[in-house]
Amino acid sequence: MKEFKHFINGEFCISENYFDKLCPTDSNVIGRVYEGLEQEVDHAVNAAEAALAGPWGKMSLDSRVALLNSIADEITRRFDDFVTAEMADTGQPRSTMEHAFIPRAAANFRIFADVVKNVPSESFMTDTPDGAGALNYAIRKPKGVIGVVCPWNAPLLLMTWKVAPALACGNTVVVKPSEETPATAALLGEVMQTVGLPAGVYNVVHGGGENSAGAFLTAHQKVDAITFTGETGTGTAIMKAAANGMRDVSFELGGKNAGLVFADCDFDKAVDSFVRSAFLNCGQVCLGTERIYVERPLFEKFVAALAIRAEQLKAGDPEDPTTTLGPLISQGHREKVLSYYKKAIAEGANLVTGGGVPEMPEALANGAWVQPTIWTGLPETASVVQEEIFGPCCHIAPFDTEAEAVALANASDYGLSTTIWTSDLSCAHRVAAQIEVGITWVNSWFLRDLRTPFGGSKQSGIGREGGVHSLEFYTETRNICIKL
Ligand code: NAD
Ligand code: 6OD
């Protein structure tokens, strides 16, 4: 049985408490996860604080950049280990890991090595009454110890999306991975040892949220800033903890993302894309589409085409190359998703496809499987249309005018992402500018340039990360004014 240990001050260690890690495909125990409490969090935060005063704090930018690139190289060298570890934790197909999620970890380290090396600093010449003037210039300083609290849906991608810029800026980190997905954060500890990252710069404490490592980390007064990806409700709890001590936060939270399909779109490409945005990772992608609005002339044809494609998805063993659909992360999450499947019917939905649990071979019968599901016919007030489900499901409704499409997309407390499908670029520009989200894709989805601002509007987040936007969060900018 595997053991998932904490990684503190450059070494793997265990603690008294532990819990079982279950495999989502069959609910068998695959490992023991050590649970960090106050003592382990304190140990990690103290190590992270001490590392700031050691060789890491004094390291030249060039050396830091070289280390980040070595981390990327080593992740690439151990690509298969990361793929296998994350497959075991999440149960998702090998192809999803190999193409969508794991390569991003190395890319995250490379991009922020480039950004931090090339970002210019700001300067202003100021007129003064004596005519000599003054020169202002800004310098960036690391914020200090960063608490990184992560979800389970794309564990390595989302964790390195925060750890890479934090380290690029000279901070140290204490990572709290999700209790559901401990493997790749621990494996990254091995990478850090191999490349010679100074002890205490990268620390991992496993455990849960409330009354566990997550809450202890975010409450710790030596944590200077907190970056979090997860549910909006958890973000609220973390923000309260961060208020104590006036610590900065960066939040990437939940979503209820809309897709808009105009009648003039490239139909086949649109359907292909919605198969991904609704069902990739078994619908457990924050940027995924759970509400689709289709211009009326195309509505019936679109619903029928997406239903056929949903029915063609093949749930199964993640190692089987023909598998295209994994399970949900846990039985607990399956209960939540199935409760929405029931609610949809109770609220009057027309069930187009799915709605239950697929029949699986005996070896996988106890896994957290659900069918990809499509509904139509619900009012906009239905809970299935308003609340984030985070499963392989979507509601599809027709619209008649551009203004109506915009209003429907915006009728949500969330504001993470939208995908618009049209061949009329003027329409795309007009509509995109009106949608209240952090990111809008036109004729694409999840096409990422890591230099661009990423984050959510409304209840989907606070702040932006990506490119120089990450530097804004992971550094403190100080102005120096020199009277000439
Ligand atoms: P979650 O909020 O339940 O848990 C996320 C992390 O927070 C876990 O590590 C958990 O242990 C920890 N946590 C829980 N309670 C805590 C507390 N009181 N104090 C400190 N830490 C605590 O989220 P999840 O279920 O792991 O992930 C799914 C959610 O994440 C969905 O809502 C999804 O939309 C969101 N998400 C958002 C983005 C984005 O970029 N906006 C990306 C991925 C996932
Ligand atoms: O691409 C990213 O940087 C990012 N944060 C993706 C989030 C995916 C959510 O499941």
Describe the structure using short key phrases.
Aldehyde Dehydrogenase, Chain A, domain 2; 6-stranded mixed β-sheet; Aldehyde Dehydrogenase, Chain A, domain 1; 7-stranded mixed β-sheet; binds (2E,4E)-2-amino-6-oxohexa-2,4-dienoic acid; 2 domains; binds nicotinamide-adenine-dinucleotide; alpha/beta; single chain
Any overview of this molecule?
There is one protein chain. This protein has 484 residues and is an alpha/beta fold. It has two domains: 276 residues, 3-Layer(aba) Sandwich (Aldehyde Dehydrogenase, Chain A, domain 1); 193 residues, Aldehyde Dehydrogenase, Chain A, domain 2, CATH 3.40.309.10. The chain has 17 helices and 23 strands. Helix 6 packs parallel to helix 7. The radius of gyration is 23 Å and the shape is globular. The site of nicotinamide-adenine-dinucleotide has 32 residues, from helix 9 and helix 10.
Q: What is the total domain count?
A: 2
Order of strands in the sheet with the most strands?
Answer: 15-16-17-14-13-19-20
Small molecules held by this entry: nicotinamide-adenine-dinucleotide, (2E,4E)-2-amino-6-oxohexa-2,4-dienoic acid
Structural class: alpha/beta
The CATH class of the largest domain is Alpha Beta
Just name the CATH architecture of the largest domain.
3-Layer(aba) Sandwich
Question: What's the CATH topology label of the largest domain?
Answer: Aldehyde Dehydrogenase, Chain A, domain 1
